[in-house]
Amino acid sequence: MRTGLLLLVATLSATPALAKDRTGYTAIAAGNLAQAETTLDAERAIFPRRPEVLLNLAAVYARTTRTARARALYDDVLRSAPVSLNLADGGTTSSHEVAERGLARLGTAIAAR
To answer: CA distances (Å), 82 to each of 14, 77, 85, in order?
Structure first.
């Protein structure tokens, strides 16, 4: 699960270290989901439609058993135009692909209960 979460941590900025902090990356990677949520909530107040913020907040919600809230954020990303994201591992992907993977994981978690 941790590997999957790190793949969700996406950035769009040209300053990776700063961008990772603004998107909750450092806190998520350290397992400090409460701090990640605080960072992401503050960032979302400024940039309410930024996909990397929504995706990382959805991941935090999913990891803290707030499935409905996670699903709503993934759906918000899918309703927006797809955006190319830089991943923590150096790869790139579409915001829609990340949201679809997140939704699929939510479905798997529900089915496993």
So the answer is: 19, 8, 9
